[in-house]
Amino acid sequence: MRFIARAHLGALLAFAALANVAVADTLEDVQAAFEKQFKGVEVGEVRKTPLPGLFEVQVGMNVLYVDEAVEYVLQGSLIEVETRTDLTKARKQKLSEVPFESLPLARAVKLVRGTGARKMAIFEDPNCPYCKKLHSTLKEMDDLTIYSFLFPVLSQDSVTKARDIWCAEAPAQVWQDWMLQDEAPETARCDDNPAKEIIALGHKLQVSGTPAMFFEDGSRLSGAVPRAKLEAQLEAASKAAPE
Question: Among 36, 150, 206, 221, which residue has the fewest nearby CB atoms (within 10 Å)?
């Protein structure tokens, strides 16, 4: 009996290994077929979905669905009926996550309020009105550390202001004076202006507008969101952040 059980276990393990190889081969075949049909489109990953015969194809932070032969492409939300879960939305949120510790925080303007226990990073253009609106909200919040990445993409004046703020003797104060009081920074220059580096990073992270906020748990938000939503996001992120 013991010999038979071991034989059955060995057969099951061998079958599982073959099944994994078959799935991997199928995913590679789907990716190859997709890239053949859509030349020049870079595929991030191909995954199985809960629906037999339907595969998820990741393109950037977008998600498409195809059959195995890539004869049909679906674009839209895949919803699990029993739980009413939007699987596509959940997947996109996961794809947009950025490990907070991977951000070059030393290249950001740092502002600490209260204990600074809660942390967030923001990609901001100095001339972005929504960024200024966000700062009006943030000034009412406490126990917060804000890392502002100067992301001057709106105009040449944004590039100049970002340089003058970063190169100032007290960048955090000059940044706040501009964002909250419209007090323009004085001309300043230095050798370590990170503007080009931050612009490249923003594009890599697919920041398409400002303000773009990143939190300790990897999640992100865009726009000048209301304080209640921001407080809830910070609390959730702080609790979920890796230790």
Answer: 36
The three-class DSSP label of residue 41 is coil
All domains of the chain, ordered by start, with CATH? 2-95 (3.10.450.70), 100-240 (3.40.30.10)
Tens of pLDDT, residue by residue over 177-198, are: 999 999 999 999 999 999 999 9
* Degrees, nearest 5: CA angle 143-179-168: 90
pTM assigned to the model: 0.74
Cβ count within 10 A of residue 70:
20
**CA 76 to CA 33: how far, in whole Å?**
21
Percent of the chain at pLDDT exceeding 70: 89
Minimal CA–CA distance to 146: which of 126, 125, 172? 172
Identify the bridge partners of residue 149 per DSSP, sorted by sequence position. Answer: 123
Q: Which residues, 6+ apart, have CB-to-CB distance to 216 below 8 Å?
A: 100, 118, 119, 120, 237, 238, 240, 241
Q: For the stretch 103-136, what's the b/e string if a residue is b when 16 or more beta carbons lie within 10 angstroms of its beta carbon?
A: beeebbbebeeeeeebbbbbbbbbbbebbbebbe
Q: Are 210 and 221 in contact (CB under 8 A)?
A: no
What per-residue confidence (pLDDT) applies to 243?
64
- Residue 24's pLDDT is 53
**Helices 171-181/156-166 angle, 10° precision:** 140
Where residue 9 falls (left for φ over 0; alpha for ψ -120 to 50; beta otherwise) is alpha
